[in-house]
Hints:
Layout: H1 14-19, E1 26-29, E2 32-35, E3 37-38, H2 49-59, H3 72-91, E4 99-103, H4 107-118, H5 121-130, E5 139-142, H6 149-156, E6 160-163, H7 174-183, E7 189-195, H8 207-220, E8 227-233, E9 255-258, E10 272-276, E11 294-297, E12 305-307, H9 311-314, H10 322-338, H11 340-368, E13 375-378, E14 390-402, E15 408-409, H12 412-423, E16 425-426, E17 428-430, H13 435-441, H14 446-457, E18 467-471, H15 478-498, E19 502-505, E20 510-513, H16 525-528, H17 541-554
Parallel strand pairs: 3-16, 5-6, 5-7, 7-8, 8-9
Antiparallel strand pairs: 1-2, 4-10, 9-10, 11-12, 13-14, 14-15, 14-18, 17-18, 19-20
Helix pairs in contact: 3-10, 4-6, 7-8, 11-15, 12-15, 15-17
Amino acid sequence: MTDILTYQPGIPNDQILQNIIGYSTIIKTPFGQKLALYADHTATGRPFQLIEDIIAQKIKPMLANSHTETSLMGYFSTQMLHYAEESILASFKVNKSTHFAIPTGNGATGAFERLTKILRISDITKQAIWEKNSQGIPYVYITPYEHHSNILSWQLSGCKLQKVQSDSYGNMHINDMKEKLFQNQNQNVQIVSVSATSNVTSQRTNLSKVNDVIKEYREKHLQEGHKIYFIVDAAAFCSHNRLNLSQNGLSEVDFVCISPHKHLGGAEATGILISRLVAYDSTQPPSFPGGGTVKAVVGLDVEQTWYDDDPFAREMPGTPNAVGFYRAALTFELQDKIGIEYILEKEEQNAKYFYKRIQEINQEFKKKEYIPPRDILIYGDPDIEIRYDVFSFNIYGPGTNTDSQGKSLFHPNYVARLLNDIFGIQVRSGCSCAGPYGVLLLGIPEKKATEIVGELLQGYEDVKPGWVRLDTFFSFEKYEIDYIVEAIKSIAMWGEKLQRFYELDQNTGQWTLRNNSHPTFSFQLDEVMNNVIDQASLDERDEYFRKQLQIALCQAP
Protein backbone atom coordinates (compact mmCIF):
# COMPACT_ATOMS: atom_id res chain seq x y z
CA MET A 1 0.00 0.00 0.00
CA THR A 2 1.27 3.46 -0.86
CA ASP A 3 2.59 5.20 2.22
CA ILE A 4 1.30 8.70 2.80
CA LEU A 5 0.61 8.40 6.50
CA THR A 6 3.85 10.18 7.37
CA TYR A 7 2.91 13.16 5.24
CA GLN A 8 3.03 16.41 7.19
CA PRO A 9 0.19 18.84 6.39
CA GLY A 10 1.34 21.99 4.64
CA ILE A 11 4.63 20.59 3.32
CA PRO A 12 4.84 19.90 -0.44
CA ASN A 13 5.59 16.21 -0.98
CA ASP A 14 5.94 14.07 -4.08
CA GLN A 15 3.84 11.44 -2.33
CA ILE A 16 0.73 13.41 -3.24
CA LEU A 17 1.58 13.44 -6.95
CA GLN A 18 2.63 9.79 -6.90
CA ASN A 19 -0.77 8.85 -5.47
CA ILE A 20 -2.84 10.72 -8.07
CA ILE A 21 -3.93 8.05 -10.56
CA GLY A 22 -3.65 9.29 -14.14
CA TYR A 23 -1.47 12.24 -13.20
CA SER A 24 1.07 11.29 -15.89
CA THR A 25 -1.10 9.44 -18.41
CA ILE A 26 -0.04 9.50 -22.06
CA ILE A 27 -3.01 9.91 -24.41
CA LYS A 28 -3.33 9.45 -28.16
CA THR A 29 -4.53 12.46 -30.14
CA PRO A 30 -4.77 13.15 -33.89
CA PHE A 31 -1.39 14.90 -33.56
CA GLY A 32 0.38 12.06 -31.80
CA GLN A 33 0.87 10.99 -28.21
CA LYS A 34 0.61 13.70 -25.57
CA LEU A 35 1.21 13.78 -21.85
CA ALA A 36 -2.22 14.69 -20.51
CA LEU A 37 -2.73 17.57 -18.12
CA TYR A 38 -6.03 17.12 -16.30
CA ALA A 39 -7.60 20.51 -15.51
CA ASP A 40 -11.22 19.43 -14.98
CA HIS A 41 -11.23 18.65 -11.25
CA THR A 42 -14.32 20.85 -10.84
CA ALA A 43 -16.28 18.18 -12.71
CA THR A 44 -14.69 15.06 -11.21
CA GLY A 45 -11.62 14.64 -9.04
CA ARG A 46 -8.82 12.22 -9.82
CA PRO A 47 -8.67 8.82 -8.12
CA PHE A 48 -6.08 8.57 -5.35
CA GLN A 49 -3.99 5.43 -4.99
CA LEU A 50 -4.00 5.38 -1.20
CA ILE A 51 -7.80 5.40 -1.10
CA GLU A 52 -8.02 2.77 -3.84
CA ASP A 53 -5.58 0.55 -1.94
CA ILE A 54 -7.46 0.93 1.33
CA ILE A 55 -10.76 -0.02 -0.30
CA ALA A 56 -9.33 -2.89 -2.37
CA GLN A 57 -7.07 -4.38 0.29
CA LYS A 58 -8.58 -3.42 3.64
CA ILE A 59 -12.32 -3.07 2.98
CA LYS A 60 -13.50 -5.30 0.15
CA PRO A 61 -12.09 -8.57 1.55
CA MET A 62 -14.47 -8.06 4.50
CA LEU A 63 -17.35 -6.48 2.57
CA ALA A 64 -20.88 -7.82 2.94
CA ASN A 65 -24.41 -6.47 3.08
CA SER A 66 -24.96 -4.02 5.91
CA HIS A 67 -28.10 -4.04 8.12
CA THR A 68 -26.86 -7.01 10.11
CA GLU A 69 -24.55 -7.61 13.04
CA THR A 70 -24.86 -11.38 13.44
CA SER A 71 -22.15 -12.26 10.90
CA LEU A 72 -18.69 -10.76 11.20
CA MET A 73 -18.57 -9.41 7.65
CA GLY A 74 -22.06 -7.96 7.95
CA TYR A 75 -21.09 -6.38 11.26
CA PHE A 76 -17.91 -5.00 9.66
CA SER A 77 -19.86 -3.41 6.79
CA THR A 78 -22.51 -1.97 9.11
CA GLN A 79 -19.84 -0.46 11.33
CA MET A 80 -18.09 1.00 8.28
CA LEU A 81 -21.35 2.66 7.23
CA HIS A 82 -21.80 4.23 10.66
CA TYR A 83 -18.16 5.28 10.79
CA ALA A 84 -18.53 7.03 7.42
CA GLU A 85 -21.45 9.09 8.73
CA GLU A 86 -19.63 10.03 11.93
CA SER A 87 -16.45 10.92 10.03
CA ILE A 88 -18.33 13.10 7.53
CA LEU A 89 -20.18 14.94 10.29
CA ALA A 90 -16.90 15.48 12.15
CA SER A 91 -15.46 17.05 8.99
CA PHE A 92 -18.17 19.70 9.33
CA LYS A 93 -17.55 20.10 13.09
CA VAL A 94 -20.88 18.54 14.12
CA ASN A 95 -22.01 15.12 15.36
CA LYS A 96 -25.05 12.86 15.60
CA SER A 97 -26.47 14.75 18.56
CA THR A 98 -27.41 17.60 16.19
CA HIS A 99 -27.11 16.30 12.61
CA PHE A 100 -27.21 13.24 10.40
CA ALA A 101 -25.70 12.48 6.98
CA ILE A 102 -26.87 10.05 4.31
CA PRO A 103 -25.55 8.88 0.92
CA THR A 104 -27.64 10.19 -1.96
CA GLY A 105 -26.78 8.72 -5.32
CA ASN A 106 -25.26 11.03 -7.94
CA GLY A 107 -23.54 13.88 -6.15
CA ALA A 108 -25.33 16.99 -4.93
CA THR A 109 -27.92 16.39 -7.65
CA GLY A 110 -29.03 13.27 -5.81
CA ALA A 111 -28.95 15.18 -2.53
CA PHE A 112 -31.31 17.86 -3.86
CA GLU A 113 -33.67 15.30 -5.31
CA ARG A 114 -33.77 13.53 -1.96
CA LEU A 115 -34.14 16.78 -0.04
CA THR A 116 -37.28 17.81 -1.91
CA LYS A 117 -38.79 14.47 -0.93
CA ILE A 118 -37.75 14.80 2.72
CA LEU A 119 -39.41 18.22 2.84
CA ARG A 120 -42.50 16.84 1.06
CA ILE A 121 -42.37 19.77 -1.35
CA SER A 122 -44.46 18.13 -4.08
CA ASP A 123 -47.14 17.15 -1.56
CA ILE A 124 -47.21 20.68 -0.17
CA THR A 125 -47.60 22.32 -3.59
CA LYS A 126 -50.24 19.82 -4.74
CA GLN A 127 -52.27 20.49 -1.63
CA ALA A 128 -51.95 24.26 -2.11
CA ILE A 129 -53.10 23.98 -5.71
CA TRP A 130 -56.00 21.70 -4.73
CA GLU A 131 -57.09 24.14 -2.04
CA LYS A 132 -56.42 27.15 -4.31
CA ASN A 133 -54.23 28.51 -1.54
CA SER A 134 -51.44 30.61 -3.05
CA GLN A 135 -49.86 31.05 0.39
CA GLY A 136 -49.21 27.32 0.47
CA ILE A 137 -46.83 27.42 -2.50
CA PRO A 138 -43.21 27.25 -1.24
CA TYR A 139 -41.02 30.15 -2.33
CA VAL A 140 -37.37 29.37 -3.10
CA TYR A 141 -34.68 32.07 -3.29
CA ILE A 142 -31.48 31.31 -5.19
CA THR A 143 -28.38 33.16 -6.37
CA PRO A 144 -27.86 33.93 -10.07
CA TYR A 145 -25.07 31.36 -10.31
CA GLU A 146 -26.87 28.22 -9.23
CA HIS A 147 -26.22 24.85 -10.82
CA HIS A 148 -29.22 23.26 -12.53
CA SER A 149 -29.47 20.81 -9.62
CA ASN A 150 -30.53 23.69 -7.37
CA ILE A 151 -33.16 24.79 -9.86
CA LEU A 152 -34.79 21.80 -11.52
CA SER A 153 -35.80 19.88 -8.39
CA TRP A 154 -37.62 22.95 -7.08
CA GLN A 155 -39.19 23.64 -10.49
CA LEU A 156 -40.65 20.17 -10.85
CA SER A 157 -41.84 20.20 -7.26
CA GLY A 158 -44.09 23.17 -8.07
CA CYS A 159 -42.20 25.83 -6.11
CA LYS A 160 -42.07 29.51 -6.97
CA LEU A 161 -38.42 30.28 -7.74
CA GLN A 162 -37.07 33.78 -7.29
CA LYS A 163 -33.57 34.90 -8.21
CA VAL A 164 -31.94 37.31 -5.78
CA GLN A 165 -30.73 40.46 -7.53
CA SER A 166 -27.00 40.71 -8.17
CA ASP A 167 -24.26 42.68 -9.85
CA SER A 168 -23.18 41.81 -13.40
CA TYR A 169 -20.85 39.10 -12.09
CA GLY A 170 -23.56 37.31 -10.15
CA ASN A 171 -22.65 38.47 -6.64
CA MET A 172 -26.06 38.65 -4.97
CA HIS A 173 -27.36 41.70 -3.12
CA ILE A 174 -28.07 40.46 0.39
CA ASN A 175 -30.58 43.25 1.03
CA ASP A 176 -32.69 42.05 -1.90
CA MET A 177 -32.84 38.58 -0.39
CA LYS A 178 -33.90 40.13 2.90
CA GLU A 179 -36.61 42.15 1.17
CA LYS A 180 -37.94 39.08 -0.61
CA LEU A 181 -38.28 37.21 2.67
CA PHE A 182 -40.33 40.04 4.18
CA GLN A 183 -42.41 40.61 1.05
CA ASN A 184 -43.43 36.95 1.08
CA GLN A 185 -43.65 36.42 4.83
CA ASN A 186 -47.24 35.19 4.49
CA GLN A 187 -46.04 32.12 2.58
CA ASN A 188 -46.21 28.99 4.68
CA VAL A 189 -42.79 27.81 3.50
CA GLN A 190 -39.81 29.89 2.38
CA ILE A 191 -36.53 28.34 1.31
CA VAL A 192 -33.17 30.03 0.86
CA SER A 193 -31.06 27.66 -1.24
CA VAL A 194 -27.68 29.03 -2.30
CA SER A 195 -24.40 27.75 -3.64
CA ALA A 196 -21.41 28.27 -1.41
CA THR A 197 -19.32 28.64 -4.56
CA SER A 198 -20.10 29.01 -8.26
CA ASN A 199 -19.03 26.00 -10.30
CA VAL A 200 -18.47 28.38 -13.23
CA THR A 201 -16.39 31.20 -11.75
CA SER A 202 -15.62 29.82 -8.24
CA GLN A 203 -16.94 33.05 -6.72
CA ARG A 204 -17.83 32.57 -3.08
CA THR A 205 -21.15 33.42 -1.46
CA ASN A 206 -20.96 35.26 1.84
CA LEU A 207 -22.83 32.57 3.75
CA SER A 208 -22.32 34.36 7.04
CA LYS A 209 -24.41 37.31 5.85
CA VAL A 210 -27.13 34.98 4.59
CA ASN A 211 -27.04 33.21 7.94
CA ASP A 212 -27.48 36.52 9.78
CA VAL A 213 -30.54 37.42 7.71
CA ILE A 214 -32.18 34.06 8.35
CA LYS A 215 -31.31 34.13 12.04
CA GLU A 216 -32.93 37.56 12.43
CA TYR A 217 -35.98 36.46 10.44
CA ARG A 218 -36.45 33.35 12.54
CA GLU A 219 -36.08 35.20 15.81
CA LYS A 220 -38.23 38.23 15.03
CA HIS A 221 -40.51 37.68 12.06
CA LEU A 222 -41.31 34.00 11.49
CA GLN A 223 -45.05 33.51 11.86
CA GLU A 224 -46.41 30.66 13.93
CA GLY A 225 -46.82 27.51 11.89
CA HIS A 226 -44.64 28.86 9.06
CA LYS A 227 -41.25 27.44 8.10
CA ILE A 228 -38.04 28.78 6.62
CA TYR A 229 -35.20 26.53 5.50
CA PHE A 230 -31.58 27.45 4.80
CA ILE A 231 -29.91 25.11 2.30
CA VAL A 232 -26.30 25.26 1.10
CA ASP A 233 -25.19 23.69 -2.16
CA ALA A 234 -21.56 22.86 -1.34
CA ALA A 235 -20.90 20.81 -4.49
CA ALA A 236 -18.24 23.18 -5.86
CA PHE A 237 -17.02 24.29 -2.43
CA CYS A 238 -15.90 21.23 -0.49
CA SER A 239 -13.02 20.31 -2.79
CA HIS A 240 -11.44 23.64 -1.80
CA ASN A 241 -12.54 24.37 1.74
CA ARG A 242 -14.69 23.17 4.61
CA LEU A 243 -17.92 24.41 6.19
CA ASN A 244 -17.89 24.64 9.98
CA LEU A 245 -21.55 24.06 10.80
CA SER A 246 -20.94 24.53 14.51
CA GLN A 247 -19.79 28.13 14.27
CA ASN A 248 -22.16 31.07 14.64
CA GLY A 249 -21.76 32.15 11.03
CA LEU A 250 -23.46 28.94 9.84
CA SER A 251 -25.68 28.23 12.82
CA GLU A 252 -28.91 28.46 10.81
CA VAL A 253 -27.95 26.06 8.00
CA ASP A 254 -30.50 23.24 7.83
CA PHE A 255 -29.21 21.13 4.94
CA VAL A 256 -25.97 20.79 2.98
CA CYS A 257 -25.78 19.08 -0.43
CA ILE A 258 -22.33 17.73 -1.31
CA SER A 259 -20.58 16.15 -4.32
CA PRO A 260 -17.58 14.19 -3.00
CA HIS A 261 -16.85 12.86 -6.50
CA LYS A 262 -15.29 16.28 -7.14
CA HIS A 263 -12.74 15.71 -4.37
CA LEU A 264 -9.28 14.26 -4.79
CA GLY A 265 -9.84 10.52 -4.46
CA GLY A 266 -13.61 10.95 -4.73
CA ALA A 267 -14.37 9.24 -8.05
CA GLU A 268 -17.22 6.74 -7.42
CA ALA A 269 -18.15 8.35 -4.09
CA THR A 270 -21.83 8.87 -3.33
CA GLY A 271 -23.46 12.24 -2.96
CA ILE A 272 -24.13 13.40 0.59
CA LEU A 273 -27.01 15.17 2.28
CA ILE A 274 -26.33 16.58 5.74
CA SER A 275 -29.39 17.56 7.77
CA ARG A 276 -29.97 19.23 11.10
CA LEU A 277 -32.11 17.02 13.29
CA VAL A 278 -34.40 19.94 14.13
CA ALA A 279 -35.09 20.46 10.40
CA TYR A 280 -36.11 16.84 9.88
CA ASP A 281 -39.76 15.97 10.49
CA SER A 282 -39.66 12.56 12.16
CA THR A 283 -43.46 12.47 12.41
CA GLN A 284 -43.60 11.79 8.67
CA PRO A 285 -42.72 8.45 7.05
CA PRO A 286 -39.33 8.24 5.35
CA SER A 287 -38.90 9.98 2.01
CA PHE A 288 -37.87 6.71 0.41
CA PRO A 289 -39.40 3.75 2.30
CA GLY A 290 -37.95 0.30 1.93
CA GLY A 291 -35.97 -2.44 3.58
CA GLY A 292 -33.76 -1.11 6.35
CA THR A 293 -35.97 1.88 7.19
CA VAL A 294 -38.37 -0.01 9.43
CA LYS A 295 -38.48 -1.46 12.91
CA ALA A 296 -41.28 -3.85 12.03
CA VAL A 297 -43.89 -4.66 9.38
CA VAL A 298 -46.54 -7.11 10.59
CA GLY A 299 -49.30 -6.58 8.06
CA LEU A 300 -50.38 -4.78 4.92
CA ASP A 301 -51.99 -1.73 6.53
CA VAL A 302 -50.04 1.46 7.20
CA GLU A 303 -50.91 1.10 10.88
CA GLN A 304 -49.02 -2.19 10.91
CA THR A 305 -45.69 -0.62 9.94
CA TRP A 306 -43.27 1.09 12.33
CA TYR A 307 -40.29 3.05 11.00
CA ASP A 308 -36.90 3.46 12.63
CA ASP A 309 -36.52 6.46 14.95
CA ASP A 310 -32.94 7.18 13.83
CA PRO A 311 -33.07 9.41 10.71
CA PHE A 312 -29.86 7.80 9.44
CA ALA A 313 -31.56 4.40 9.28
CA ARG A 314 -34.97 5.87 8.46
CA GLU A 315 -33.57 7.49 5.29
CA MET A 316 -31.35 4.56 4.25
CA PRO A 317 -33.56 2.24 2.17
CA GLY A 318 -32.38 -0.99 0.62
CA THR A 319 -28.72 -1.90 0.41
CA PRO A 320 -26.79 1.37 0.59
CA ASN A 321 -23.60 2.04 -1.35
CA ALA A 322 -21.53 1.60 1.79
CA VAL A 323 -18.21 1.66 -0.05
CA GLY A 324 -19.13 4.84 -1.95
CA PHE A 325 -20.20 6.51 1.30
CA TYR A 326 -17.01 5.40 3.04
CA ARG A 327 -14.98 6.65 0.08
CA ALA A 328 -16.64 10.05 0.50
CA ALA A 329 -15.57 10.08 4.15
CA LEU A 330 -12.00 9.20 3.18
CA THR A 331 -11.81 12.17 0.80
CA PHE A 332 -12.43 14.55 3.69
CA GLU A 333 -9.86 12.74 5.82
CA LEU A 334 -7.39 12.97 2.93
CA GLN A 335 -7.96 16.72 2.73
CA ASP A 336 -7.16 16.98 6.42
CA LYS A 337 -4.03 14.88 5.89
CA ILE A 338 -2.85 17.17 3.11
CA GLY A 339 -3.97 20.24 5.03
CA ILE A 340 -6.87 22.54 4.17
CA GLU A 341 -4.71 25.61 4.74
CA TYR A 342 -2.06 24.20 2.42
CA ILE A 343 -4.67 23.49 -0.27
CA LEU A 344 -6.09 27.01 0.02
CA GLU A 345 -2.64 28.60 -0.07
CA LYS A 346 -1.54 26.67 -3.16
CA GLU A 347 -4.84 27.29 -4.95
CA GLU A 348 -4.62 31.00 -4.25
CA GLN A 349 -1.05 31.15 -5.55
CA ASN A 350 -1.95 29.22 -8.69
CA ALA A 351 -5.13 31.21 -9.34
CA LYS A 352 -3.38 34.56 -8.97
CA TYR A 353 -0.52 33.47 -11.19
CA PHE A 354 -2.84 32.17 -13.92
CA TYR A 355 -4.95 35.33 -13.85
CA LYS A 356 -1.84 37.53 -13.97
CA ARG A 357 -0.42 35.65 -16.95
CA ILE A 358 -3.68 35.92 -18.89
CA GLN A 359 -3.87 39.66 -18.26
CA GLU A 360 -0.28 40.06 -19.45
CA ILE A 361 -1.10 38.22 -22.67
CA ASN A 362 -4.14 40.42 -23.23
CA GLN A 363 -1.88 43.46 -22.93
CA GLU A 364 0.42 41.95 -25.56
CA PHE A 365 -2.54 41.44 -27.86
CA LYS A 366 -3.63 45.06 -27.49
CA LYS A 367 -0.18 46.32 -28.48
CA LYS A 368 -0.14 44.19 -31.64
CA GLU A 369 -3.56 45.50 -32.73
CA TYR A 370 -4.88 42.28 -34.21
CA ILE A 371 -7.90 42.51 -36.53
CA PRO A 372 -10.27 41.33 -35.25
CA PRO A 373 -8.90 41.99 -31.76
CA ARG A 374 -7.60 39.06 -29.74
CA ASP A 375 -8.74 38.83 -26.15
CA ILE A 376 -9.01 36.10 -23.52
CA LEU A 377 -12.09 37.01 -21.51
CA ILE A 378 -12.32 35.43 -18.05
CA TYR A 379 -15.86 35.52 -16.71
CA GLY A 380 -16.92 36.47 -13.22
CA ASP A 381 -15.67 38.85 -10.60
CA PRO A 382 -12.09 40.02 -11.30
CA ASP A 383 -11.41 40.11 -7.56
CA ILE A 384 -9.37 36.93 -7.12
CA GLU A 385 -9.68 37.26 -3.35
CA ILE A 386 -13.32 36.12 -3.46
CA ARG A 387 -12.71 33.25 -5.88
CA TYR A 388 -11.10 29.84 -5.80
CA ASP A 389 -9.12 28.35 -8.69
CA VAL A 390 -11.82 27.76 -11.32
CA PHE A 391 -11.83 29.88 -14.48
CA SER A 392 -14.31 30.02 -17.35
CA PHE A 393 -13.24 31.93 -20.43
CA ASN A 394 -13.70 32.55 -24.14
CA ILE A 395 -11.09 33.48 -26.71
CA TYR A 396 -12.02 36.44 -28.89
CA GLY A 397 -10.64 36.38 -32.40
CA PRO A 398 -11.54 35.33 -35.96
CA GLY A 399 -13.71 32.41 -34.91
CA THR A 400 -17.05 31.07 -36.07
CA ASN A 401 -19.11 32.41 -33.17
CA THR A 402 -20.22 35.87 -32.13
CA ASP A 403 -21.19 37.19 -28.73
CA SER A 404 -24.30 39.20 -27.84
CA GLN A 405 -22.61 42.36 -29.16
CA GLY A 406 -21.58 40.83 -32.47
CA LYS A 407 -17.89 40.38 -31.61
CA SER A 408 -16.31 37.26 -33.09
CA LEU A 409 -14.88 34.52 -30.91
CA PHE A 410 -13.79 30.92 -31.21
CA HIS A 411 -16.41 28.29 -30.49
CA PRO A 412 -15.66 27.04 -26.94
CA ASN A 413 -15.94 23.42 -28.10
CA TYR A 414 -13.34 24.16 -30.77
CA VAL A 415 -10.98 25.63 -28.20
CA ALA A 416 -11.44 22.63 -25.91
CA ARG A 417 -10.78 20.30 -28.85
CA LEU A 418 -7.53 22.07 -29.75
CA LEU A 419 -6.38 22.03 -26.14
CA ASN A 420 -6.90 18.26 -26.18
CA ASP A 421 -5.60 17.43 -29.65
CA ILE A 422 -2.51 19.62 -29.73
CA PHE A 423 -1.61 20.01 -26.07
CA GLY A 424 -3.23 17.09 -24.23
CA ILE A 425 -4.95 19.49 -21.82
CA GLN A 426 -8.23 18.14 -20.44
CA VAL A 427 -10.85 20.87 -19.93
CA ARG A 428 -14.62 21.21 -20.25
CA SER A 429 -16.66 23.38 -22.59
CA GLY A 430 -20.33 24.31 -22.47
CA CYS A 431 -22.44 26.12 -19.90
CA SER A 432 -21.33 23.96 -16.94
CA CYS A 433 -24.96 23.07 -16.12
CA ALA A 434 -25.58 26.68 -15.13
CA GLY A 435 -27.73 28.03 -17.97
CA PRO A 436 -29.32 31.02 -16.21
CA TYR A 437 -25.88 32.18 -15.05
CA GLY A 438 -24.65 31.83 -18.60
CA VAL A 439 -27.40 34.15 -19.82
CA LEU A 440 -26.19 36.73 -17.27
CA LEU A 441 -22.44 36.35 -17.86
CA LEU A 442 -22.71 36.29 -21.64
CA GLY A 443 -25.17 39.18 -21.70
CA ILE A 444 -27.71 37.30 -23.81
CA PRO A 445 -30.95 39.28 -24.29
CA GLU A 446 -34.19 37.43 -23.59
CA LYS A 447 -35.23 37.50 -27.25
CA LYS A 448 -31.90 36.05 -28.36
CA ALA A 449 -32.08 33.35 -25.68
CA THR A 450 -35.51 32.35 -27.00
CA GLU A 451 -34.13 32.13 -30.55
CA ILE A 452 -31.24 29.95 -29.38
CA VAL A 453 -33.60 27.59 -27.58
CA GLY A 454 -35.70 27.32 -30.73
CA GLU A 455 -32.66 26.22 -32.74
CA LEU A 456 -31.59 23.80 -30.01
CA LEU A 457 -35.00 22.17 -30.05
CA GLN A 458 -34.59 21.66 -33.80
CA GLY A 459 -31.42 19.69 -33.11
CA TYR A 460 -28.73 22.32 -33.69
CA GLU A 461 -26.46 21.90 -30.67
CA ASP A 462 -23.74 24.06 -32.23
CA VAL A 463 -25.66 27.25 -31.38
CA LYS A 464 -25.51 26.61 -27.64
CA PRO A 465 -23.44 29.40 -26.05
CA GLY A 466 -20.91 28.71 -23.35
CA TRP A 467 -17.26 28.90 -22.36
CA VAL A 468 -14.19 26.83 -21.67
CA ARG A 469 -13.69 25.93 -18.01
CA LEU A 470 -10.50 24.83 -16.31
CA ASP A 471 -8.96 24.87 -12.87
CA THR A 472 -5.44 25.45 -11.55
CA PHE A 473 -5.43 22.56 -9.09
CA PHE A 474 -3.44 22.85 -5.88
CA SER A 475 -1.00 20.15 -7.04
CA PHE A 476 -0.07 22.13 -10.17
CA GLU A 477 3.43 23.51 -10.39
CA LYS A 478 4.26 26.82 -12.04
CA TYR A 479 5.43 25.14 -15.25
CA GLU A 480 2.07 23.39 -15.63
CA ILE A 481 0.17 26.67 -15.39
CA ASP A 482 2.61 28.24 -17.85
CA TYR A 483 1.92 25.36 -20.23
CA ILE A 484 -1.85 25.94 -20.03
CA VAL A 485 -1.43 29.68 -20.53
CA GLU A 486 0.87 29.27 -23.52
CA ALA A 487 -1.55 26.79 -25.06
CA ILE A 488 -4.43 29.26 -24.72
CA LYS A 489 -2.27 32.04 -26.14
CA SER A 490 -1.29 29.87 -29.12
CA ILE A 491 -4.91 29.10 -29.95
CA ALA A 492 -5.77 32.80 -29.78
CA MET A 493 -2.95 33.59 -32.21
CA TRP A 494 -3.34 30.87 -34.85
CA GLY A 495 -6.55 29.03 -34.06
CA GLU A 496 -8.18 30.64 -37.11
CA LYS A 497 -5.78 28.91 -39.51
CA LEU A 498 -6.50 25.50 -38.05
CA GLN A 499 -10.26 25.80 -38.49
CA ARG A 500 -10.10 24.61 -42.09
CA PHE A 501 -8.72 21.27 -40.88
CA TYR A 502 -11.66 20.77 -38.51
CA GLU A 503 -15.35 20.33 -39.12
CA LEU A 504 -18.30 21.13 -36.89
CA ASP A 505 -21.16 18.71 -36.41
CA GLN A 506 -24.17 21.00 -36.02
CA ASN A 507 -26.21 18.24 -34.38
CA THR A 508 -23.72 17.64 -31.57
CA GLY A 509 -21.81 20.91 -31.46
CA GLN A 510 -18.55 18.93 -31.51
CA TRP A 511 -15.47 19.68 -33.60
CA THR A 512 -13.33 16.90 -35.07
CA LEU A 513 -10.31 16.82 -37.32
CA ARG A 514 -11.46 16.18 -40.89
CA ASN A 515 -11.18 12.54 -41.96
CA ASN A 516 -10.31 11.61 -38.40
CA SER A 517 -12.90 9.84 -36.29
CA HIS A 518 -13.04 9.65 -32.52
CA PRO A 519 -10.91 6.89 -31.03
CA THR A 520 -12.71 3.71 -30.08
CA PHE A 521 -12.31 2.10 -26.68
CA SER A 522 -13.12 -1.43 -25.64
CA PHE A 523 -14.79 -1.99 -22.29
CA GLN A 524 -15.76 -5.64 -22.72
CA LEU A 525 -14.49 -7.91 -19.98
CA ASP A 526 -12.49 -10.13 -22.33
CA GLU A 527 -10.90 -7.18 -24.15
CA VAL A 528 -10.36 -4.38 -21.66
CA MET A 529 -7.48 -6.25 -20.02
CA ASN A 530 -5.52 -5.76 -23.24
CA ASN A 531 -5.83 -1.97 -23.10
CA VAL A 532 -2.45 -0.30 -22.71
CA ILE A 533 -2.26 3.08 -20.97
CA ASP A 534 1.23 4.56 -21.03
CA GLN A 535 2.53 6.63 -18.17
CA ALA A 536 5.36 9.13 -17.90
CA SER A 537 7.46 9.46 -14.78
CA LEU A 538 6.88 12.48 -12.56
CA ASP A 539 10.32 13.91 -13.18
CA GLU A 540 9.67 13.88 -16.95
CA ARG A 541 6.55 16.06 -16.85
CA ASP A 542 8.28 19.41 -17.24
CA GLU A 543 10.31 18.15 -20.20
CA TYR A 544 7.26 16.55 -21.82
CA PHE A 545 5.27 19.79 -21.69
CA ARG A 546 8.23 21.82 -22.90
CA LYS A 547 8.64 19.57 -25.94
CA GLN A 548 4.90 19.44 -26.63
CA LEU A 549 4.73 23.23 -26.63
CA GLN A 550 7.83 23.46 -28.79
CA ILE A 551 6.37 21.04 -31.35
CA ALA A 552 3.07 22.93 -31.40
CA LEU A 553 4.81 26.26 -31.99
CA CYS A 554 7.09 24.84 -34.69
CA GLN A 555 4.12 23.36 -36.54
CA ALA A 556 1.96 26.46 -36.14
CA PRO A 557 0.49 27.61 -39.47
